[in-house]
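Handout, page 2. Input:
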Amino acid sequence: MTAFAVISLIVNSTAAHTTKVKPSQIIRNCETGNRTTCVVHGDTIWLDGHKIRIADIDTPDVRRPKCASELSLGIKATGRLMELINDGPFELQAWSGREKDRYGRNLRVLVRDGRRLGDILVSEGFARTWSGTREPWC
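Output:
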């Protein structure tokens, strides 16, 4: 597995802007305390001190799941996202139309070699394509 992290990540960008994320260290699950570069859950990450919401998908919640099956799938989605982002360099692409969500997270799409990492999570059953509204997982 190739390990990497963010070097000079610029999150504030225009819709046409792409930010490259380059190798340097393994990105792990967020733990309590300092959240600089880590995975919160299947659709939220911290990169270089910026909280990123993966804009094109929705994954089950692990912080406040509504049922045991949501928690179980959410844990799997989180682990799979960590594997995907640690597989090598990727790009952050701005989300068309909105810079941030209602929680202040930067909306971005993660892309490697022309393929959205969110699409991989969807195809493997760990996520849904974002429809503009949350749908229940239970």
